[in-house]
Specification:
The chain is mainly α. It is built from 13 helices and 2 strands.
Length: about 375
């Protein structure tokens, strides 16, 4: 008899949070033994402990938390550029009300930074790949990277990097829901080949070209003639203000407009050419084929430039993401999040749905 699969699998986010908590306690040992009477290090850690106290004090007394008179008395000082970590102060205030001292509150914030960072990267990788094991490894690498442990010794403001993967995760979900209509972000699609067929013989799911051909263009491609004959094409004089086929108004009638043969240097009625045709273009025009399209009449593939641009943006985002891991300034986080949002929205709006992720990265 086959046993029923347990509903609570190890890959569940809560289970992974428990695993990452155990790893955090192990790698920060013996912090657990001195949770309420010691800090991982001194120096700036005491400044961050004061920040936790001040946020609670400001909330209880109704003061503006970004200005204090406890520093530089009697003038006071603005704390806008101080390493306050306001969210840590907001989360730590209820813990202090419950009876935890400042050292215990600070150590809770330290452990949260490890657990939430690893869990956030796990959720992001799971959303992108669907592989639980690979996502667990990604969470471990991000949450317990050397950068994180280097700032364990006093820099709570730089340790709190756990919100980066959550920000990216929910940004991807929001954009996928708005633009991709709930489709996975990197789901491969069938990009048509130059011969018009789909991927490995599958039907082509080609999107609309940048410039959709009209019925007149289709007629011109089949017959190799001008789809809309003008009086000059039929041997009669042109109207006084008849525009040419390129949208430019003729100032004076030519011999071809009067029924005679066109001069050697005068373009024919197939359209005025701004550039001289090449040897390859001449047979194409004679055979009724648009030189800009393929031999079977399929629209040209104009997406290579788009794919290259998307790949460049993708690599730039990855580079910026790893740059954040080695940054030593809080402003780098702000700049990264801002640029990530702008470039990713442009990345999706530019036309990522025209082709699959795998096809895009191969170009």
């Amino acid at each position: 008899m086959r046993l029923a699969r347990p509903a609570f699998a190890l890959s569940h986010p809560l289970a992974m949070a428990g695993v990452y908590t155990l790893i955090s306690l192990l790698l920060t040992w013996p912090l657990l033994l001195h949770f309420g009477d010691a800090l991982p290090a001194g120096g700036d850690a005491w400044q961050n402990v004061w920040n936790l106290w001040w946020l609670r004090k400001a909330i209880e007394s109704g003061q503006w938390p970004f200005h204090t008179g406890y520093k530089y008395y009697p003038y006071g000082v603005n704390l806008y550029f101080d390493t306050m970590v306001p969210l840590a102060g907001l989360l730590g205030t209820p813990l202090q009300w419950l009876g935890l001292n400042l050292l215990s509150t600070y150590n809770v914030m330290v452990l949260l930074s490890f657990v939430l960072a690893a869990l956030g990267m796990y959720l992001l990788a799971r959303y992108l790949t669907g592989d639980a094991l690979a996502s667990f490894i990604a969470g471990f690498i991000f949450g317990f990277c050397p950068y994180h442990f280097a700032h364990l010794y006093g820099h709570l403001n730089l340790m709190w990097m756990q919100w980066l993967p959550y920000y990216i995760l929910f940004l991807l979900k929001a954009v996928d829901g708005a633009i991709g209509q709930g489709e996975p972000l990197f789901a491969p699609t069938n990009v048509p080949s130059p011969k018009g067929g789909g991927k490995e013989g599958e039907p082509s799911h080609q999107g609309e070209p940048l410039f959709a051909p009209t019925e007149n263009d289709a007629t011109a491609q089949q017959g190799g003639i001008n789809p809309v004959p003008t009086p000059s094409d039929q041997g009669g004089p042109p109207p006084a203000s008849t525009p040419s086929h390129q949208g430019e108004q003729r100032l004076a009638p030519t011999p071809s407009d009067q029924g005679g043969p066109p001069p050697a240097s005068t373009p024919s009625d197939q359209g005025e050419q701004r550039f001289a045709p090449t040897e390859d273009a001449a047979p194409a025009r004679q055979g009724g084929i648009n030189p800009a399209s393929t031999g079977d009449g399929t629209p040209p593939l104009q997406q290579s430039t788009i794919y290259n641009l998307q790949s460049t943006i993708h690599n730039a985002l990855l580079a910026g993401f790893f740059l954040v891991l080695t940054a030593y300034s809080e402003w780098t986080y702000v700049a990264f999040l801002t640029l990530f949002t702008i470039f990713y929205l442009l990345y999706r709006l530019w036309g990522v749905r025209r082709g699959g992720w795998r096809q895009m990265t191969r170009l």
